Predict the 3D structure of the following.
Amino acid sequence: MTRKERRAKVLAERKQQKKAKPTPAGELYGWMAGLLPPGGGRVLEVGPHLSGTMALEERGWHVVPVDAGAVLAKGQFQGEPVDAVTCWLLETPKGIPAVTEKLQAMGLRTSDETRLALQTLVYRLADRVLRPGGVLQVVDKVGQQLDEALATGVMRLQRAQAKGTTLEFASIDAKPVGGGALVSVRSRKG
């Protein structure tokens, strides 16, 4: 197959994926919420989203919303211990001067770098606010289906993000979305 033919094939596949019916946000958030332990309790939702909050509440969780920008700017949460912390599909926080200053001080330039840094800060936050046995769930979108190599890389990243905390890897799940997947990593506080 020539380079031109391969390019045409890739473009045709992308066009086909765009035509595919998108998965409703409520279904995706329902999937994510369904991976948390049943029975509810208090959950700290970092970067709250209406569909996510509703999915958590439908499963019996009392949601405590925390803006992702506040986690970046202040790195802390004042409140009672929680049973779970969620960090789902975060957008890069923008427009908050303290966040912009912190991002610049950290040398972060791309949204991917910022998302990973924020997730690492969420691991530190979860270590402080989770009750023993509590769960941290981080969900992010990747551009390919979850295979063994990607799962190994995601678990390596989780170990790096959890370094210096009492959080231990618990499980990983994925849901195909478009040409990629949503990957959910759950860690438990020891």
